[in-house]
Structure formats: C-alpha cells, structure tokens
C-alpha cells in the first residue's frame, strides 16, 4: 500500500455535517422569523427549497460565475420568492442570522474525531476548502477541529478555488511536500477528486449516501464512512 505523509481534508460535507447543521439552523430561523404566519409553506418545505437553491448557487460560485456576496444575498431571496412570498414579505436580516448561527453548530460526520485522533500522530493534517474564511474558522472552533490541523487553506486566502490545481499547489508549497506524498479526502467529485487528480494527488471520494452511477475516472479510493480511512491509512 502506498505511503503518504500528509492528508488533505475538505471541511463541509466531509468532516463538518453541513446538511444536519444547516437543517437545524433553518428550523430555528423558521420560528424566529415567524415564517409560518404567511401560511404558504411549512418548515420542511423551507428546508428543502433552501437546500435546492443553495446547492445550485454554490455550484455557480465554485465555477466562478457568482461571487460570495451574490451567493449570500441571493439564496434566501430565491428560496422565499420560490415558496410564494412577495418581495415586501421577505424578512429583513434572515441571511445575516443564518451566517451568524449556522457555523456555531457542531454536528460532524460519524467517527470524525476518532479518525482524526488516529491520523494526527502519523500524518500532517490540513484543511483545503472553498468555504469562506471567517465562517470556516468558526465552524472548526465550535466543533473542536482546529487542534488536529496544521494548515487551513481557504479559497479566499490563496485566490483560487477547487478544482483549480493552483489551490492545491498553494498548499503543497506551504507545507513543502510533493503531490505524491499527499492524499485528498472530499465529498465533491469535481472540486475535490478531479481537482486533486489534476494536481497529481491521490484521492479518497467520501460518499455517505451512494449516488446513482459511478464517477469516471474512478478515484484512488472510495469510502462511505470516515472510519474506513483506518483501512487505507
């Protein structure tokens, strides 16, 4: 089995359970902003619509077609207008409340701390994420992840976004290692797997819920639970 010296992790959807934390936040905001008074949608519909809109806006952001400001401003507007609210009914401050509350949530994927504690004595561990700098650090502090990692590279700090190989090269330059010494672990096939492959880095495709059809070319490894990393590393 190949020997690595450094392990690169994506954060959202890989270690930090974005869906669970976001869902909890949105249910709170539904009550806090009294969205039920409009009588047009329930809390579950609010969550499902937001998830749909946010996923597509993040895809546009990762492809460089919208910026951070547009993503943050548009996701609640598009969600609530799509659920039938008129523009004058849009609650002021809900986008800001989400940004303030969600990163403080602490749900991680099963075995995250256990696996990181197992890996830390053996490898240099690093985060490489397209998430926004200030938000990612709040997430890591709240969920007690910071102590495991040596470098936390965000797209804002280096000027590139995954899957751009230059983002991976920026990290490699900082830690002074070769691509073949590293292994990238992430949930996004395009950003994490194809991006790492393009930079010459082996990959672990993390898919907790098996998707229909297999991605090609296949990643170096594929797992559905973080605990499986112990079999690889």
From TrEMBL:
Its domain of life? Bacteria
Q: Which protein are we looking at?
A: Noncanonical pyrimidine nucleotidase, YjjG family
InterPro entries in UniProt: HAD-like_sf, HAD-SF_hydro_IA, HAD-SF_hydro_IA_YjjG/PynA, HAD_sf, PGP-like_dom2, Pyrimidine_5'-ntase_YjjG
| SUPFAM superfamilies the UniProt entry points to | HAD-like
Q: Which PANTHER family match?
A: PTHR47478, PYRIMIDINE 5'-NUCLEOTIDASE YJJG
Which organism was this protein described from?
Pontibacter actiniarum
Q: Name one GO molecular function term.
A: 5'-nucleotidase activity
Q: Which residues form the signal peptide?
A: none
């Amino acid at each position: 089995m190949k020997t690595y010296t450094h392990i690169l992790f994506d954060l959202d959807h890989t270690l930090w359970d974005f869906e669970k934390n976001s869902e909890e936040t949105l249910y709170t905001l539904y009550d806090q902003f009294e969205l039920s008074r409009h009588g047009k949608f329930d809390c579950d519909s609010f969550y499902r619509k937001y998830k749909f809109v946010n996923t597509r806006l993040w895809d546009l952001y990762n492809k460089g077609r919208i910026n951070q400001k547009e993503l943050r401003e548009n996701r609640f507007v598009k969600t609530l207008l799509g659920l039938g609210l008129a523009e004058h009914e849009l609650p002021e401050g809900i986008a800001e409340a989400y940004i303030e509350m969600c990163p403080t949530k602490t749900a991680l994927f099963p075995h995250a701390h256990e696996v990181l504690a197992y890996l830390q004595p053996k490898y240099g561990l690093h985060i490489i994420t397209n998430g926004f700098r200030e938000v990612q650090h709040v997430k890591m502090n709240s969920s007690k992840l910071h102590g495991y990692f040596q470098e936390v590279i965000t797209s804002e700090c280096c000027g590139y976004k995954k899957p751009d190989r230059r983002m991976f090269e920026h990290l490699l330059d900082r830690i002074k290692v070769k691509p073949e010494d590293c292994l990238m672990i992430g949930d996004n096939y395009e950003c994490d797997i194809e991006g790492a492959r393009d930079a010459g880095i082996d990959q672990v495709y993390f898919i907790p819920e098996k998707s229909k059809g297999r991605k090609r070319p296949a990643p170096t490894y594929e797992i559905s639970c973080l605990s499986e990393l112990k079999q690889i590393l």
